[in-house]
Amino acid sequence: MHDAVHRAINDTVKALVRVAAMREKGADLHSARVAVLAVATGEKLGMSDEELLVLRRAAELHDIGKVAISDSILGKLGRLSEEEIQIMRQHATLALEILGAVQALKPTLPLIKHHHERWDGSGYPDGLAGEQIPLGARIIAVAEVYDILTHGAPWKEPLGVEEAKAEIQRCAGTQFDPRVVEAFLQVCDLMCD
Predict the structure, then answer these.
(1) HEC profile for 87-154?
(2) Range with the lowest mean pLDDT among 24-28, 68-72, 99-103, 161-165?
């Protein structure tokens, strides 16, 4: 029974990721890469198997709220206006509305909601700082930014691995938890090419 429940949850996550990919090209690949890096970083930090499972699911679903963002913003090439940025930032909380009814995914919600918080408190949606931010959200934040840096985005050309790692290191203590950055970079030395 336990395996059947886990399979059903995993199938639900996969279906939701497919929906995201239908709305935003490459969202499924981005989510998969973020999940792999996040779980490896969580392992390095000594997270339990249960915590790693929640982390993986949250990383796979971290941008699911974007399915509720208009095509004109989601698919825009180039920089977003300030108003568009504010709308795009809603994806972190829109995810809670989408996933909130799925009891089995409730443990992922704080990680998804807070993956854009910053170590120094200047992030969103709640302006949390330091240890107030759930560890899984701090891990997803680093993995997501690294993936965007190395794979690019409509507004950004991709960087090389070494440049991206240097940028992650530069943001330790401001945007990112320094302990998470240290673990992530150790993982990246083994996995990132």
Answers:
(1) HHHCHHHHHHHHHCCCHHHHHHHHHHHCCCCCCCCCCCCCCCCHHHCCHHHHHHHHHHHHHHHHHCEC
(2) 24-28
Of 118, 148, 115, give the one whose Cα is nearest residue 130.
Answer: 118
Q: Is the dihedral of CA 63, 69, 72, 73 positive or negative?
A: negative
C-alpha–C-alpha distance, residues 174 and 130, integer Å: 9
Q: For residue 97, which of 135, 65, 144 has the smallest C-alpha distance?
A: 65
> What span, in angstroms and rounded, lies between the C-alpha atoms of 91 and 71?
13
Residue 11 and residue 142: Cα distance in Å, rounded? 26
Which two tokens mark 49? 């198997």
CA distances to 13, 84, 88, 93 from 68, rounded to whole Å, are: 17, 13, 9, 11
The pLDDT assigned to 159 comes to 93
Short-list 91, 87, 36, CA closest to 63: 91
pTM above threshold 0.70:
yes
- Reading the block at residue 176, the tokens are 């990112």
Integer Cα distance of 107 and 74 in angstroms: 27
Determine the structural domain holding residue 33 and report its residue range.
2-191
pLDDT digits (tens, 9 = 90+) for 96-105: 999 998 999 9
Q: How many domains does the chain have?
A: 1
Q: What is the CATH number of the domain that holds 8?
A: 1.10.3210.10
